[in-house]
Amino acid sequence: MEIWWLVAVSIAVVLVCILVFKLHAFLTLLIAGLLVAVLTAKPALIEYAASEVESGMWTEKVASSFPGLSGASRLATAFGETAASVGILIALASIVGQVLLESRAAMTIVDAMLRVTGRKRAAEALAASSFVLGIPVFFDTVFYLMVPLARSLRQRLGKDYVLFILAILAGGSIAHSLIPPTPGPLQVAEIIGVDIGTMLLVGLAVGGCSSVLSLLAARLINHFVTVPLRSIDPSASDADLVELSTVDSEAGESAEANPPLSLALLPIASPVVLISAASVLKTLIKGKQLESSWLTEAVLFVGDKNVAIGIAVLLTFFLMRYVDAGKRKSLISRSLASAGNIILITAAGGAFGAMLRQAGIAQAVSELASNVPMMMLLPIAFAVTAAIRTLQGSSTVAMITAAGVLQGFAQAEGLPFHPVYLAMAIGAGSKPIAWMTDSGFWVMCKMSGMTEREGLMTVSPMSTAMGFNALAVTMLFANFMPLV
Q1: Cβ atoms of 184 and 395 closer than 8 Å
Q2: What is the pLDDT of residue 1?
Q3: Distance in angstroms between the alpha carbons of the first and the last residue of the chain
Q4: For residue 131, which of 83, 190, 176, 81 has the smallest C-alpha distance?
Q5: How many CA atoms lie within 13 A of 300 on its CB side?
Q6: Which residues contact 442 (CB under 8 A, 6 or more apart)?
Q7: 228: three-class secondary structure by DSSP
Q8: In this predicted model, what pLDDT tens digit does every residue of 264-308 receive, in sequence order?
């Protein structure tokens, strides 16, 4: 029972620091991690060290010295290990995302989607474009990029503004929570112990199906709620809104100023293909269905998550000539400055999760799971994450915190499905409920011109529907494609 009191106190600290004291997530997670580290009893540390020796991760010498380390030392070590695991990936992915935006490659992708669907299916184009862009680009940035297009479409069609706004949410937000290299799913995969390639492939499948279902929910909400198109600048009229070339060729910049579609998609598609290929090869070699050779070793090398995203960064250099000359020199430094904040939060969250592991959370959760029907583990993971997300607002913090608490489920004896589905359930739980505590809620309201009441009538139910859709798809996949 001691471990559960420790979990309860640490989560309470996270919530109080964020909700009451408005503390930054980085400091909050470090404080919670240090609290767990200091309060962890020595017998728990000895037991944890023994388990690491048994698994072959540590030597006897390392294990014998581990219980004597201070809480601060253990926290710092875990912080460094997490940063080493995800830091390069997040930094490189940030560069890819920024280049896609500033070279207008992102708009090229949206253009192509709209040409395929036409205006009558503009919502599908917005959702699909947001989903693709949501893989390397953070959701807030995707929304900033896409909302002017939604406003312009509303001006021209005279209806369905709510549908267009929620379509962006249906695509970009799902990708943000289920598909690496965005920080949430990346760190959940690390904590749960899921191969990044497996997380990527399953995330694409579950996320794609969830986005389709969520778009149906968006149409339903749009049927009952109407939001007028308002100016988001008090000094401007709606007639002053910029109309983008993605809707009409006579407005905005000419298509010739944008990079070609093949070049725009290259930095997104290449890491997906390389990481996925390496993941499939690992599975085949492990199952002795394929012999290791120089060719497989080469594929495994370029399919390493850091190398694959590094190749994507190199490919973005072909897009640099489309970036405004005045911004070109500072683009990389601006991208890395933005990534630094995310890396710190993610590493602090990883350290918090590691302190919970050392306190014995994995064993405690495994014992708890032995008394729970196995398919109920996914709704439980969903509910825990959703509760944390609703209370403190950040989906990334909710995913990292929940993964630290629930990591023992992944090692539960007799688990009838691959642990990746546990990661998917945690990602699904990070969607409900977007409301006043969520910075993304305010971004969507302010950038779209919605009032708080309208946001609660549209964004909040949509985020809830997205979460339950993703959970339902995850459970279906876990039942019919358990991957074990």
Answers
A1: yes
A2: 53
A3: 32
A4: 176
A5: 13
A6: none
A7: coil
A8: 889 988 988 898 888 888 878 887 788 888 889 999 999 898 899
pLDDT band of residue 370 (cuts 50, 70, 90) is low
**Contact by Cβ (8 Å): 131, 211:** yes
For residue 376, is pLDDT > 50? yes
Asked whether the beta carbons of 29 and 187 are under 8 A apart, the reply is no
Region of 268 (left: φ > 0; alpha: ψ -120 to 50; beta: rest) is alpha
Count of alpha carbons within 13 angstroms of residue 263, beta-carbon side? 17
Residue with the two structure tokens 């008090």:
234
Residue 413, token pair as written in the block: 């004896």
Contact criterion met (CB below 8 Å) for 356 and 36 = yes
User: Does residue 170 contact residue 462 with C-beta atoms inside 8 Å?
Assistant: yes
Cα–Cα distance between 321 and 343 in angstroms, integer?
A: 29
Evaluate whether 348 touches 186 at the Cβ level (below 8 Å).
Answer: no
- For the segment 42-65, the average pLDDT, to the nearest whole number, is 88
Assigned token pair, 25: 């997530």
User: The tokens of 204 are what?
Assistant: 């694409």
Q: CA–CA separation, 28 vs 314, rounded Å?
A: 36
DSSP string of 366-418, one letter each residue: HHHHTTS-GGGHHHHHHHHHHHHHHHH--HHHHHHHHHHHHGGGGG-TT--S-
Look up residue 453 and give its amino acid.
Answer: R
What does the DSSP 8-state code read for residue 482?
Answer: -
pLDDT tens-digit map of 157-173? 788 899 999 999 999 99
Distance of alpha carbon 70 from alpha carbon 380, whole angstroms: 34
Question: Using one digit for the tens of pLDDT, what is the confidence trace for 112-158?
Answer: 888 887 777 889 989 998 998 888 777 877 887 788 788 878 887 78
